[in-house]
Amino acid sequence: LHLVDRTEEFIDTIRSNKDVDGHTTSNYNSYRQTSIPPITIPVVAAVREILLEINEPLQGKDVVVIGRSKYVGTPLALMLSQATTDSKSSLISGATVTICHRDTHLN
């Protein structure tokens, strides 16, 4: 089975409720459009738990995310920047996020 040009098409055959990594187009798009996604990407969930354990409010602070990948950097930046009314999540949301990647140049 040659998937080089059809990888996303193949991944999108996975049922959204079985897509624990958030790789399907529908889960990825829902993550970007809602503050409480139906499925949380495992790496982002792990970072969330670490930040909650640290117990340092991020609202209004400047945060840098290294990497803009579809499955880690971008969802992490979205989680940190989105406003939320959930008291637990509000501790780690509302930050001003800058994403740095391989094309980011320091002045």
Automatic annotation (TrEMBL):
GO terms for molecular function: methenyltetrahydrofolate cyclohydrolase activity; methylenetetrahydrofolate dehydrogenase (NADP+) activity. This is methenyltetrahydrofolate cyclohydrolase. It comes from Rotaria socialis. Residues 45-105 form the Tetrahydrofolate dehydrogenase/cyclohydrolase NAD(P)-binding domain. Its EC number is 3.5.4.9. It comes from the Eukaryota. Pfam families: THF_DHG_CYH_C (PF02882). Transmembrane segments: none annotated. One of its GO terms (cellular component) is cytosol. It is an enzyme of class 3 (hydrolase). GO terms for biological process: tetrahydrofolate interconversion.
